[in-house]
Amino acid sequence: MKKSVYSLVLMDDVIKAVDEKAYRLGTSRSNLINQILAAELSCITPEMRMRDIFGSLTEHIGRSFQIQQQRSASLMTMRTALEYKYRPTISYRVELDRSPDVFIGTLRVSVRTMNEKLIEMFGAFFLYWSAMESERLAKIMPDTELSDITPMTFTRKFLNTGLDDENTACAISSYLDALNGALKTYFADPACLQDHSPWLEEQYRSMLEKYII
Fold first, then answer.
1. Rounded to the nearest 10 degrees, what angle do helices 12-25 and 29-40 cross at?
2. Topology of 1-43 in CATH?
3. I need a surface site. Which of 44, 65, 112, 196 has the fewest CB within 10 A?
């Protein structure tokens, strides 16, 4: 959303109260005043849009993820445990863009571990997942790089396909469910990934029939 600079004359007591609340909320004075005025005048701000999306996303993902306390309107962090030896924790971080253009946001999936075998398996799974996605999405978004892989992190950009807030939440939820389900299937039996591939790819194809994200 476009922003411009305006000059306002406000009481010192008002500014003091605004600054105190902005500090508590972890935002700026200008952004808080913008939110207050938008709420009073029934305007939609990026923060409102993101809260609506995350509110719906929370309802959709149900018990599949453990949702962490949110420290930013643009960020939602979740965790889930894998059925592998000492049950390592996987972190999912969804960050939405304030002004979506080609992409509406980014997903980062990470694992914190010093176990080299686990790091190797994590990377192997996401190489498979990224290649599978690239093949499926090539006809929809040719020459567009959506994902990036480092030893302990998978990053995936979410496409902006013009969905409303509710359907955006549904699309993100569907993607998280498909990815988390595939990840757990892999770690439950790493040696049989090729055997599970047809089923996993069918699940992904079914998701694409509903949402492209």
1. 100
2. Arc Repressor Mutant (1.10.1220)
3. 112
